[in-house]
Here is the input.
Amino acid sequence: MVGDEVLMGSDAPPERYEQAKGFSVTLSVDDPGDAERIFRDLSQNGTVQMPIQKTFWAVRFGMLVDQFGIPWMINCEEVTPLTLRAKAGVAAPDRGAEIAEGRKVTGPLCAPRPR
Here is the structure.
């Protein structure tokens, strides 16, 4: 979904096909079990570039190229007060002053603004 719109893709006829380059499709999910299942399903007959695992920003994150040559990143973020605020459409605090003063900044630098 992009806003209230569905983002769709399609394939090309064999004579017009070009291998995917310079991008990854990123899928963000809320449940670590869903992240692992989706990663497993997409990686069948594909190539795992980074096994799905815990990272400093995510409960689960992994990268793969599926059997059709499409690169994917599967991300399941840590649930923090800031991520909960972002999902609710509440703006994150302005971090510019902290950055300008050279203070350590943790968490996201921005979040969706309410409409």
About this structure: The mean pLDDT is 80. The first strand starts at residue 25 and ends at 28. The helical segments are 32-43, 81-87, 96-100. The longest helix spans residues 32-43.
